[in-house]
Each structure stands twice: as structure tokens, then as C-alpha cells.
Design a protein that fits this description.
Layout: E1 2-6, H1 20-31, E2 35-41, E3 50-53, E4 56-61, H2 79-85, H3 90-108, E5 113-117, H4 119-133, E6 137-141, H5 144-151, H6 155-164, E7 168-171, H7 174-183, E8 191-193, E9 219-223, H8 232-239, E10 246-250, H9 256-265, E11 272-276, H10 283-288, E12 292-295, H11 317-324, E13 328-332, H12 337-340, E14 348-350, H13 355-366, H14 369-383, H15 388-401, H16 404-408
Parallel strand pairs: 1-2, 1-5, 2-4, 5-6, 6-7, 7-8, 9-10, 9-12, 10-11, 12-13, 13-14
Antiparallel strand pairs: 3-4
């Protein structure tokens, strides 16, 4: 099957965290024999315009000349954060999306199926392609698009249009489904909560739990973009309450300088290591060299007490990768993470932005090796539920259940 995949986020270099879950799905579909063509707006800079590997072709669509052929609005901060900081970029983003839609219309003529990521704008474009080209469309929502859609004027009409041109509309967590259904009640029966995130395969088994030094100092890991929404300040403040714990920060972004400054001013510099971006193949060794994975993301607009300008969380891939590697996950009660982590059973949860509560979680782990071993073993076992083969099987079942074979023979309008 020839699959056209539309997204606004896709990795541009080794270690790039943006859209890694989209890349995983594209490569997964290619691994079972599909031809996958990915279209994504060009992020500007020196990113390659096209690349091909193992059945996946990626084309970064250039913007109109007046934008310099690319737009950084789809870069490090992401579209939502970029707009929040500079609403004047709306016109720039609109032109880039128009170029993406035009190229998608051309590419769809030779494809059998369209998969889009984020309901806005991808789902809208995909539904239009389905109506015009007569090909099936699956819309996948990771969080940001649903938050935009639930607050935009005419959301019922917009979501109705997406549903009318979609074989399936799938959201990565039950929380997203409930919030979107609450905003547009008539859509509830057509929305599906489905885990579309899975850990990268990790070779071998982790070290035996009894042999891992869970006594102080614990080895703590943070992996992600260094932007305000990821809560790195909360983590550094919590670390200040622990006397010996060591922290490794993997990632880069606008708050890296803040993290470095905070570490130096609070005398944490000897216990904090900032690695910058790390290529994905090298992450296995980093996971296995640590005991605890902390995801301190701040509350988004769908979370209790969340900020309207925050991007929020779905189900981070690094959460599942850390669980699969045998780390104890310590996460804020944000997005879909509480659907994966059961407090005290396979990890620990704390209120977003509460550095004191996070410090208590970390201290309890540092002082209780048996608790660490139990939580890590259960987390690793639970991570096996989230695998690429199971995801692809679910997608294939969905396609067959909707009679997609008949739709493939439908003439182009």
C-alpha cells in the first residue's frame, strides 16, 4: 500500500526529538511492506529538502519565496509555542501550510491512504484530500491539535468536516478524547483513544535489579526539549533538596542557558550534566546508566489548573523508553501520563510544578532500594504493552473493519 503521511513535525538530524513518534510510525509501516511518503513543512535553515531510507521518503516542503523558502515556526518551539510568543507569525504559518496542502494534493493522486498527524491543521488537510481524491484518511492526534480545535470558533463544524473525511480519528490518550468530546459532544462516538506511542527497541535485558546501586546517590535522567513547558526548573529546584543525587539532562532548547545558570547559582553544577542532543542509537546506553526517569512537564490547557498557552503532554515516548529500560518513572500528573503510570505501582506521580512534592518522591526512592526494584520491574513489564507490532495490528484491524479495500477502488473525483 502507498501511504501518504502529513505532519508538521519530523526529525531533521540525529538526536532531534521533534516528531520522533511520527518517524517511528512511518518506519514501522515501511517495515511491513508499505511505501511511505512523508510531507512536512521545511523548518528553515540547512535541513535537507528530501531524503529516503528503508521504504520511507521524506520531503520537506518549501514555503513561498517571501518566507525565504522555509519557516522556523515549525522548529524548536513548535507551532503552538511559536504563536503564543509571536501571534504575528500566523500569516507565515498559513502560507507554509498552504504550500504543504498543495503538494499533498499532488502526491495524493498516486497514494492509497492518507495518515495525518494533529487534527489542526493536518486532519483538515487530510479530510479535504479524502473528499477530493476519494482515498481513505486516518487522523491521529497527539495533543496540540486537539487543544487548538477545542478552543477555536466553529469547532463543531471543523471537527465535523474532519470526521466526514476520516476512516478513523485516533487520539493518543483517553484524556484527550474526553476533553475533545466535552468540547464537541456530538463527536464522542467517532473518537477513539489509542496508544500510538511506543518505546524504541532496546537490546538485551537491563542489569539485575539487585545489582543496581539504588542507594544514594541516585542517578536521575531528564530527556526532552528544554522549553518552559517541560518543567526543567521544577526538576532543578527539587534536586536542590537532595544532598547527593546526580542529574543528567539530555536535550537542547531555549532554556538550556537557564538550566546552566540555575545549576551554577545553586551550587548544583557538580551534580548536573547537560549533554545536549544525543543521537537516538546512543540513548540505550544513557538509559541503562541511570536509575530514575523524571518527566516534570507543566500542566497544559486540558489539565486541571493548566495554562492556556502551554502545549501540555500526550504520552511521551521517552516515558515508555525509560520504563522499557528498567528505570523508575517519576512523572507530573499531566496529559496521558497518569493513564500509563499508577502511583506506587509502576512509578510515582506528583502535582505539576510542585518541586517539594517531586523532591519527596526522589527522596523516597533514594532511601528505599526495594521500592525502586519493585517499581522498575513493574514499569518494564507494563512497557511491553506498547509495541510497534501491536500498534500496526490495531491499524490494520481498523482498516479492514472500515472496509478500506472497497474504498481503494473508489474512483478519484
Amino acid at each position: 500500500m502507498r501511504v501518504l503521511m502529513l505532519t508538521t513535525s519530523y526529525p531533521t538530524f540525529p538526536g532531534d526529538f521533534r516528531g520522533g513518534f511520527v518517524e517511528d510510525l512511518a518506519q514501522g509501516l515501511a517495515s511491513i511492506g508499505h511505501e511511505v511518503q512523508v510531507l512536512v513543512p521545511h523548518p528553515g535553515g540547512d535541513a535537507q529538502e528530501s531524503e529516503s531510507s528503508a521504504g520511507v521518503t521524506v520531503e520537506r516542503v518549501r514555503s513561498p519565496r517571501l518566507l525565504g523558502h522555509g519557516t522556523s515556526a515549525f522548529g524548536e518551539l513548535g507551532v503552538l509555542n511559536s504563536l503564543a510568543k509571536n501571534p504575528g507569525r500566523a500569516a507565515e504559518i498559513a502560507l507554509a501550510l498552504a504550500a504543504l496542502a498543495r503538494r499533498a494534493l499532488e502526491a495524493a493522486a498516486s497514494c492509497d491512504l492518507v495518515i495525518t498527524h494533529w487534527l489542526v491543521p493536518g486532519g483538515v488537510i487530510g479530510a479535504a484530500l479524502s473528499h477530493v481524491r476519494g482515498i481513505p484518511h486516518i487522523a491521529i492526534e497527539h495533543g496540540g491539535g486537539a487543544r487548538v480545535l477545542s478552543r477555536m470558533p466553529g469547532r463543531s463544524l471543523a471537527l465535523g468536516f474532519i470526521l466526514s473525511g476520516s476512516t478513523a480519528v485516533q487520539l493518543v490518550s483517553q484524556q484527550l478524547k474526553e476533553q475533545l468530546a466535552r468540547a464537541v459532544p456530538s463527536s464522542r462516538d467517532r473518537l477513539e483513544a489509542l496508544s500510538l506511542v511506543f518505546p524504541a527497541p532496546l537490546p538485551g535485558e537491563p542489569p539485575a535489579q539487585s545489582a543496581r546501586p539504588y542507594m544514594p546517590p541516585p542517578r536521575i535522567l531528564f530527556v526532552g526539549r528544554l522549553i518552559e513547558d517541560k518543567g526543567i526548573e521544577t526538576l532543578l529546584a527539587a534536586l536542590g533538596h537532595l544532598r547527593h543525587a546526580r542529574l543528567t539532562v539530555v536535550g537542547d532548547g531555549p532554556q538550556r542557558m537557564l538550566a546552566e545558570t540555575t545549576s551554577q547559582e545553586s551550587e548544583l553544577s557538580s551534580r548536573v550534566t547537560l549533554t545536549g542532543l544525543v543521537p537516538r542509537p546512543d540513548m540505550d546506553a544513557i538509559y541503562r546508566a541511570h536509575d530514575i526517569l523524571v518527566i516534570p512537564s507543566l500542566a497544559g490547557p486540558f489539565d486541571e489548573g493548566g495554562r492556556s498557552g502551554a502545549s501540555g503532554e500526550g504520552v511521551p515516548r521517552v516515558l515508555l523508553e525509560g520504563m522499557a529500560a528498567g528505570l523508575v518513572p517519576v512523572c507530573s500528573k499531566v496529559g496521558g501520563m497518569p493513564e500509563v503510570i499508577r502511583d506506587g505501582e509502576n512509578g510515582l506521580l506528583f502535582p505539576p510544578g510542585d518541586s517539594d512534592a517531586l523532591a519527596r518522591c526522589l527522596r523516597s526512592l533514594a532511601n528505599n532500594p526495594k521500592l525502586c526494584a519493585r517499581l522498575a520491574a513493574r514499569a518494564r513489564r507494563d512497557a511491553t504493552r506498547y509495541t510497534l507490532p501491536s500498534l500496526l495490528k490495531l491499524l490494520d484491524n481498523r482498516l479492514r473493519g472500515e472496509g478500506i479495500e472497497l474504498r481503494l477502488a473508489r474512483p478519484v473525483r
